[in-house]
Specification:
alpha+beta, Uridine Diphospho-n-acetylenolpyruvylglucosamine Reductase, domain 3, Enolase-like, domain 1, 26% helix, 25% strand, binds flavin-adenine dinucleotide
Length: 274
Amino acid sequence: MDITTVSHYRRARTRDDLALAPGEVILAGGTWLMSEPQPGTTGFVDVTTMGWPDIEIAAGGLRIGATCTIATLVAWSRGAHEIPVPEAWDAVAMIPDAANALLASFKIWNTATVGGNVCQSFAAGALISLAVALDGVARVWQPDGGERVLPVAELITGNAENALLPGEVLRSVELPAHALESRVLLRKIALAELGRSGAVVTGRVDGDAAAVFTVTAATLRPVVLRFASLPDAASLAAAVGDAPGFYTDSLGAADWRRGVSIELAERIRTELAA
Ligand SMILES: Cc1cc2nc3c(=O)[nH]c(=O)nc-3n(C[C@H](O)[C@H](O)[C@H](O)COP(=O)(O)OP(=O)(O)OC[C@H]3O[C@@H](n4cnc5c(N)ncnc54)[C@H](O)[C@@H]3O)c2cc1C
């Protein structure tokens, strides 16, 4: 779509270039920014020219550059990238499942970025589901030159709402090794076969037997439920059912979202227990 209010466009190459003038916004893949009118936006600052590596592996885990496209992340997870996937990181197999939860064409996958998906902060943000499932943290660059790190689950504060302050830029999403080494499963449901997710539930068991279940898409913001070990069916159903924020929109009623989240969590629990 033509964004008729925009009169200028800048490519950011240094951190100083990320300082936004009034009316400017950060542009990543542009798949959402270009999909509807942006009243009040007069300039785009392209963050994809910052030269951030897509994938970096360190002892602590995986760092995904905010400008990494969803397609590149999926390709890496499937071994089609110059940086190999560490053998112990079984959870990487979930990345294509998470990306598939994004209702998007191949064209969108190749353009949309991980950072754009997180910063757009839709309840049905597929990369949010991935990050939250694996204890992902967001590294945020602050306009005064500092940075802060917070869990992605806390960065997202509502459907299309987040805790980014004016001028802050998401630099990376980082997934810790202990979560990448876990057994993890993701299940999703949508009212229409190819519709946007109505509920995305994940469950994982870590090396120390601790279990973590998450609910996204069904709730206004991510829900993370932690257990010392895999819970029994009743405890899990109660925890999921009591989670805050189940909501109603054209993609599903709150009661339906609650009900299917309980069911998906139980299916995951059964598989993890097997
Ligand atoms: C057909 C179609 C289907 C879609 N399906 C889904 C879906 O199922 N789920 C979903 O969540 N979204 C969906 N989207 C919306 C959008 O495409 C995705 O959220 C996408 O991942 C956004 O990434 P992007 O890089 O294109 O972001 P952009 O459109 O470039 O930016 C999105 C927002 O994030 C901000 N931003 C981007 N990068 C940064 C950064 N590094 N730091 C700070 N702010 C930043 C921008 O200023 C903007 O406000 C869909 C869009 C289309 C057109």
